[in-house]
Design brief:
About 40% of the residues are buried. The protein has about 375 residues and is α/β, with parallel strands linked by helices. The protein folds into two domains: about 5-170 and about 355-370, 3-Layer(aba) Sandwich (Rossmann fold); about 180-350, Glycogen Phosphorylase B (Rossmann fold, 3-Layer(aba) Sandwich), CATH 3.40.50. The longest helix has 16 residues, at about 60-75. Strands 9-8-7-10-11-12 form a six-stranded parallel beta sheet, sandwiched between helices. Strands 3-4-5-6 form a four-stranded parallel beta sheet, sandwiched between helices. The protein is about 40% helix and about 15% strand.
Length: about 375
């Protein structure tokens, strides 16, 4: 399993545990950053490669040689890459090996860097890189419909090597509404010192430009209902800028920047809706988690959100539509946490469950192994 940074393995540990329990040897290759012991212990071995998160960084040339050495010496049956930079470097390394000695290569694209809202020049650059690397990709797994259409249109891989799969799954038991979590959600509101009548909206996201949280704050300021409060659960480079925006718009008393929250479940459960006006997503895990908890979503009408929210898991607006987002804030209050809503959201989740996705990966790997 290959990722650009070790943090991504947090979402893949269940796969490592499953396949090792089935008798596979499962190793990891990732960037040179600290890795928690729990993550390291999930693998039979961990290999570090000095790649950069920027595709054009010269360091990635050296990383190709490092990845090639790991793959050559490992004698793997399958290499499964996640995240764009690690995937491009790894596939470049594979292309330098004799075809007869290459392992099967599976690439899960957690949202292409080229997308409908992207800049034409960067879209063309990233699309060309994917098409080039697609030559040594035995299975390209995409996780939303827009990426499936784009991969087919651009012929990134042959049609029989393109697979649409709904992400990597979530543990539905972990995100089940329980009496304990509901009690914690009450405590969460108390800790935030919210008025009893407050209507809480929560964004669980990195504070980065693509999450577009400035629009969420602008919509709060546009809405005259002062019962509305907005929590931002996440860290990132825009924290100071967003705090300043809230102060400038006069809503800093109703915008709560919480930083990284180890367990977002009580916070989301205490909210009328999850808010995520992203301009770009792969398949939003935050949206899936909110759905599993029975909390509606106000999301940007973008890939990876629309796939999940439509037809009845919440409301979609254009990512930069401040007025539309403000109106959605009003609309969602009327339906929050009703029993019918919880049942409706839960009924859609079986296809997104971790158990189901592990079964799909078993089938996926069997389809590429020559003696399966």
């Amino acid at each position: 399993m290959v990722t650009t940074v070790p943090e991504t393995f947090h979402f893949l540990l269940a796969y490592a545990h499953h396949f090792r329990a089935e008798g596979w040897r499962v190793e990891a290759m990732t960037g040179q950053r600290p890795m928690p012991d729990q993550t390291r212990e999930a693998f039979d071995a961990v290999h570090e490669v000095a790649w950069s998160r920027r595709l054009a960084d010269p360091h990635n040339v050296r990383a190709v040689a490092q990845a090639r050495r790991v793959i050559r010496d490992g004698h793997y049956d399958i290499v499964h890459t996640h995240t764009p930079i690690a995937s491009f470097v790894t596939r470049t390394a594979l292309a330098t090996l004799p075809a007869a000695t290459r392992p099967r290569l599976v690439y899960t694209a957690h949202g292409f860097h080229f997308h409908s809202g992207g800049k034409p020049l960067s879209n063309a650059w990233y699309a060309a890189a994917e098409a080039l690397a697609g030559r040594v990709t035995d299975r390209l797994v995409v996780i939303n419909e827009e990426d499936r259409r784009a991969a087919a249109r651009l012929r990134v891989v042959a049609a029989d090597r393109l697979v649409l799969m709904p992400g990597i799954g979530i543990d539905l038991d972990h995100y089940r509404r329980t009496p304990e979590l509901l009690a914690q959600s009450v405590q969460c509101r108390a800790a935030l010192k919210l008025p009893d009548a407050a209507v809480l909206l929560t964004a669980v996201a990195e504070l980065t430009p693509r999450k577009n949280l400035a629009t969420a704050i602008a919509a709060l300021a546009h809405n005259p209902d002062r019962r509305l409060h907005l929590c931002l659960a996440g860290a990132g480079p825009l924290a100071g800028e967003l705090a300043e925006q809230a102060r400038r718009l006069g809503v800093d008393d109703r915008v709560h920047l919480l930083g990284s929250v180890p367990d977002v479940r009580p916070l989301v459960l205490s909210s009328a809706a999850l808010v995520l006006p992203s301009r770009q997503e792969g398949l939003s895990r935050a949206v899936m988690e909110a759905m599993a908890l029975g909390v509606p979503v106000i999301g940007g009408r973008t890939r990876g959100i629309a796939d999940l929210v439509e037809p009845n898991a919440g409301l979609l607006v254009d990512p930069d539509d401040v007025v539309g987002l403000s109106l959605a804030y009003d609309a969602v209050q009327m339906h929050a946490h009703g029993d019918l809503l919880v049942s409706r959201l839960s009924s859609r989740l079986s296809a997104l469950s971790l158990d189901h996705l592990i079964r799909l990966h078993v089938q996926l790997y069997a389809s590429v192994l020559p003696n399966a």
